[in-house]
Write a structure and sequence with these properties.
- This protein has two helices and two strands, in the order ββαα.
- With 68 residues, it is of the alpha+beta class.
- A hairpin with a 3-residue loop joins strand 1 and strand 2.
- The relative contact order is 0.16.
């Protein structure tokens, strides 16, 4: 099964029944992954984000925040 970014969400839609929304990391936008690396709390998910960006061919350049 593919790597997940967040847990799945199940909602009830009248006439259709239960609808499951999956949050796979491959469907997550690049900006959302970068924001999670910078501000996220869980190291395991940060590593998943870095692995996904590497898979997409995006090189991560680490910079320290400059004081202006």
């Amino acid at each position: 099964m593919p790597v997940k970014f967040k847990p799945s969400q199940t909602t009830f839609v009248k006439g259709q029944g239960k609808v499951t929304q999956n949050y796979f990391i491959k469907n997550t936008s690049k900006q959302e992954l970068i924001d999670y690396i910078n501000k996220g709390q869980k190291p395991k998910i940060k590593q998943k984000c870095m692995n996904e960006l590497t898979r997409r061919g995006i090189e991560i350049v680490w910079k320290t925040p400059s004081e202006d």
